[in-house]
Amino acid sequence: MFWDIEANLPATPLTVTAKSHLLAWWFCSAGHAFQAKVGAVACTDGTISTRACDECRAEDEAETAALVTVRIDSLPELVAAWCDDEPIGDLLLGDHAMRKLHCPNGHRPRVSPFRYYTSGCPHCSVVRAPTVAEAHPELAAQWHPTRNRRTADDIGEFSVRKIWWLSPCCGCEWQASPQQRLTEPRHRCPVCESILDSLGERDPDLARQWHRANALTPFHVKPYSSHVVRWVCPADASHEWEASVGTRSAGTGCPHCSTAGTSIPETMLVEALRAHWTQTRQGATVPRTVNGPAWRVDALVSAGGRHLVVEYDGQYWHADKTTLDEMKTLDLLASGHHVVRIRENDLPDLPIRHDRLLQLRHRPRFDAVAPLGARIAQWWDS
Fold this sequence. Notes:
Blueprint: E1 2-3, H1 5-8, E2 23-27, E3 33-37, H2 38-41, H3 54-67, H4 76-81, E4 99-100, E5 110-111, H5 113-119, H6 122-125, H7 132-135, H8 137-140, E6 163-166, E7 173-176, H9 178-181, E8 187-189, E9 194-195, H10 199-202, H11 204-207, E10 228-232, E11 240-244, H12 245-249, H13 264-274, E12 281-282, E13 285-286, E14 295-296, E15 299-303, E16 306-313, H14 315-318, H15 322-334, E17 338-344, E18 357-362, H16 370-381
Parallel strand pairs: 16-17, 17-18
Antiparallel strand pairs: 1-2, 2-3, 4-5, 6-7, 8-9, 10-11, 12-15, 13-14, 15-16
Helix pairs in contact: 13-16
């Protein structure tokens, strides 16, 4: 059913209410034009009545009148479904008594022949809720193999029927309905307190990079959790770092292997440092002294029980990051690190004075990088 825009001007659907008595022009899906009050056409749920068109309604009534006089034994689908105690005999489709019928899907409804013929089996027309097996494979995998009479393919996902479950991690057995399992806290195992839809279930490849020293397991956190945990590089087990679960799920990889976001002078600086300290780590992470994600540093040197952080501050990227650079430097100094900040071109020095802080100037167009390594080594050794 459609509003006739031109015939109803200046009125529009935006200027009339659903209960308006305005006599408006409409046209139906069959192309019939007619007039009717807005309140008589608009339903309470916001839809338009399909019986507002007089011509369509007359056609439907004529078709119904013809159907009720049809003999049931002339309709093969009704004959095949008939299992009522009373034989079909001379019964007409207009017989409104409730009859026992048997649909092709195995349902046995008691319904009038007319309703069954025009609307089908009432059980089949109901939208079936997905089963546990269809909607929640992780739950279905925990279905106890011997203590349930029904399978996960037979029970709806929000059923209140008590089901026996078997924990995949510790072998715990317990009873709960699917509805309870899908209600917070959504435990995968009530003993281990692991959760459903965890990182371990959703992303097994990433879960294999989980460091064994973490207090939690991949089955205790969601894929986009803000928990900061320790990771092990799949390509080199000596590479370890801290990052939030959500950051890893978003696609970030090992910072030691990655060169993304690393400038050419920074890479050359790391090589210059490795000429003095072979174990210099590029893109390493350093824990903060306060809560928050670990700092990622350009270069980290560890020797003789001391730790040196070297940061190369390119002018383009650090022009408006003085506050962040200052905060990072102060935190690194507070954690006991020696810090070197190499400020590119005209970047001003940070307003910090400390015995363990060295600030150097570097102009890429005129200055070589290699001498920086020697100067840093001389300062740290002194």
